[in-house]
Amino acid sequence: MERRRERDRQLRLLRYASPPAMVAAVTARRRAGDWRGACAAALVDAHVDLRDVTSRYGTDEAARIEGELRGLAPDLLRRFLPRTDSLTLVPRATVVLSRLRGPFPTDTGRLGPGVPLLVATLPLTERAPQRVGLRVTDSGRLPSWWYDLPGWCWDADEVAARRWAYGASAVRLPWHSLAGCSYPQGDTATSDHAGDRAAEVERVAALLAARQPVAAYDAAGVAVDPDEVWQRGPWFEARLVAHAPALPVLVDETRRLAHRYAVMTQFSADRRLAVEFAAGDRLTVRAAAWNEPAAGPCAFGVPAPADVALLGWGALTPDDLHPLVHEALFPGRAQRWQAPEAAPHPPIRVRCGPDWHLVRIIDGRLATPQHSDEELRREFVLAGLGGPLVGCAAAVRAWRTGAKPLPKELRKVRQDIFARALHGDTDGLLALLADGLDPGLRDSTGSTLMHWLSHLDHVRMLPALTAAGLDVNGRDRDGRTPLHAAAVALATEVMSALLAAGADPDVVDVQGHTAAGLLATARKLTRR
Q1: Fold of 348-526
Q2: Counting Cβ atoms within 10 Å, is residue 499 exposed (0-12), middle (13-18) or buried (19+)?
Q3: Residue 466: CA atoms inside 13 Å, Cβ hemisphere, count?
Q4: Domain residue ranges of the chain, discontinuous segments joined by +
């Protein structure tokens, strides 16, 4: 967390996985005992029929599943679901949530059937709406590869385990003194006893920051064979670093999974590393052989939370934390929960002729203080007649249309706006529109927010966009309208709303496809 880029990525993860409005809505419904309402607010589609569970598995198992549902905090769960490097949910993954007192039954080396499991299922593709399915499946029907999340990732009642997972000891947080004052994250506190959880997390982080991954694994309780490092060289150390976010919880998680599934060797999701038990019950990590039958629960599947590190850097305050995280880390403190405020965008330099000009993003619009609107319009007219478009005028056009080139800092801001659409942050986008965001803003594919309706609450977003003057038949660079985009996402309700708003069903894209044709193809490919 020494690099600002890492901190920014973690903040984006928190903001995309469970936006502030989602946290507020889920918390209210969860406290009211409405688990279905909490799931709906968290973009989790609950396909759970407790009567069916009772008829198939009996009242005891149905009661267990019901108890897990009552404790479910789906907004917190979203923060720990497996994600790609671009922060989208890992496509087609299955995530086991259920807890059992004992290990699973096995049948000839495989999980035996007959145990109902509460599982989360993730979208089919990275670009699909980032909704999560919640269902009950039989233990014998798990895929060959799955994830398994501990209770502190999703159960509201796992307060003590959550405090441990976030790195806190009984008396303090990592990078915080007993008095609660933060200190630099390169430092570690002197501890009076070896069991200081906060000091352990600090040591691991300090070794990683010093680029000593082997020592960091050893400090976390996982041995690395020196011969393995020597033989495989930088590639192996790079894999250790890539999986290091899980280090603070790796030993506990590996033992938990070994107990549940009776697997003594567990593989990372990329099948590059294996964690296994060596002599004396100590864990070791090695490179996985290319021909090893990697299956079972995923190792390194739960990254340790970064919230406390963000607190230490001042990127978050206690009042910014998720309410359940605040409860675990600051017991007895009254939280005045608030959405973390985004810092204002600094002015951005753009080369304009022989000079450098500053442009600013104000309320979602690109402002050019050194050019009047009339000057910009004149430049656009000349460009339409075949003249060159450069400097600030080119930046404004690229910002609005998704064209290139666009200065890097402006590109990052625009990416963030459309990432909110991808992750379903309807409230955040409506707030931006109310503050003046250009509704005609386009992403790098030429799509407007109208093309992203399948990812959002279209009941609220569509009227806002049409009222702002956005065309329901506007095309992206592939000639696709919002109706085409909804068809690809199998969002038939969105298609109906668009048709009612005046969308043309006969429009074809550059490949000659209508929306109905794309819908038929998508249904065939997904068997829906």
Answers
A1: 1.25.40
A2: middle
A3: 17
A4: 1-157, 348-526
Percentage helix, strand, coil, to 5, in the chain? 45, 15, 40
Task: Identify the pLDDT of residue 189.
Answer: 58
Identity of the residue numbered 59? T
Separation of first and last alpha carbons in the chain: 43
Q: Any idea what DSSP says for residue 302?
A: S
Q: Is the peptide bond before 439 cis (omega within 30 degrees of 0)?
A: no
Give residue 256's identity as a one-letter amino acid code. Answer: R
Least confident of 104-113, 291-300, 379-388: 104-113
Structure tokens given for 251: 């030993």
Compute the mean pLDDT over every residue in the chain, rounded to the nearest whole number: 91
Q: Region 238-249: what's the mean pLDDT?
A: 96
Its sign, for the CA torsion 246, 247, 248, 249, is: positive
User: Under 8 Å CB-to-CB from 428, ≥6 apart: which residues?
Assistant: 19, 20, 21, 420
Write down the residue that tokens 């490097």 correspond to.
85
- How far is the C-alpha of 159 from the C-alpha of 394, rounded, in Å? 53
The strand ranges marked E within 177-279 are 222-224, 265-267, 273-277
pLDDT of residue 180: 77
The angle formed by the CA atoms of residues 8, 12 and 14, to the nearest 5 degrees, is: 120
Contact 357, 350 (CB under 8 A): yes
Helices and strands of the chain, counted as H and E runs? 22, 15
**What angle separates helix 391-401 from helix 408-422, to the nearest 10 degrees?**
10
Q: What's the sign of the alpha-carbon dihedral 515, 518, 520, 522?
A: negative
Whole-angstrom Cα distance, residue 359 to residue 376? 13
Distances, alpha carbon 303 to alpha carbons 185, 243, 308, 432, 458, in Å: 19, 8, 14, 31, 33
For residue 48, give the nearest of 61, 65, 64, 32 by alpha carbon: 65
The three-state secondary structure class of 187 is: coil
Rounded to whole angstroms, how far apart are CA atoms 42 and 81? Answer: 13
Q: How confident is the model at residue 8 (pLDDT cuts 50, 70, 90)?
A: very high
Count of CB atoms situated within 10 Å of the CB of 254: 24
Burial 394-417 (b: 16+ CB within 10 A, else e): bbbbbbeebeeebbeebbebbeeb
Please report the pLDDT score of residue 111 as a whole number. Answer: 76
Helix or strand run (H / E) with residue 355: strand 355-362
- Cα dihedral 64→68→70→71 (10° resolution): 140
Residue 236 burial (CB count, 10 A):
22
- Residue pair 302/308 in contact (Cβ under 8 Å)? The answer is no
Q: Is pLDDT at 26 greater than 90 in this prediction? A: yes
Please compute, for residue 249, the number of CA atoms within 13 A of its CA located in the half-sphere on the CB side. Answer: 26
Q: What was the pLDDT predicted at 43?
A: 98
Q: How far apart are CA 115 and CA 151, in angstroms?
A: 18
- Does residue 108 surpass a pLDDT of 60? no
**Inter-residue contact 335 to 319 (CB < 8 Å):** yes
